[in-house]
Amino acid sequence: MKIKDIVKRISLNEQVSLEQRIYIEKLSKHNSIIWTWPKKANSLRRYGKQNSDGINGLIQNLGLDGLETENHFDLKNDDLADWFCGSPDWVRRS
Fold first, then answer.
1. DSSP 67
2. pLDDT of 66 strictly over 70
């Protein structure tokens, strides 16, 4: 409940302390579900709720980066392995 409250406040652009952000960051390194929650919350805060029928809604629901065009994968200039380098360990092992 504590984690969900913090994540909800992030999505509503309400104040969250540094200690609370660190707490979620530590937990997210060990739990793939918790890892997606702050990413979804930040996406909701920045872009609002996206249409669930479109690709932006899918990206937002999965908690992925990519609503900004600079985060889109470019087949000609990007290496797929490098593109996933910022992912948590459980994604890189896949």
1. S
2. no
Pick 20 or 56 by higher pLDDT: 20
Our measurement of the distance from residue 12's CA atom to the centroid of its chain's CA atoms, rounded to an integer in Å, reads: 15
**CA pair distance 48, 38, nearest whole angstrom:** 14
Enter the pTM of the model.
Answer: 0.58
Give the burial string for 51-71 (b: 16+ CB within 10 Å, else e): eeeeeeeebbeebeebeeeee
Domain borders along the chain are 2-92
Range 44-49, long-range pairs (CB < 8 A, 24+ positions): 44/11, 45/10, 45/11, 45/12, 45/13
| The pLDDT of residue 82 is above 70 | no
- The pLDDT score that the predictor gives to residue 50 is 83
The mean predicted confidence, pLDDT, of the chain is 79
Phi-psi region of 19 (alpha: psi -120 to 50; beta: other; left: phi over 0): alpha
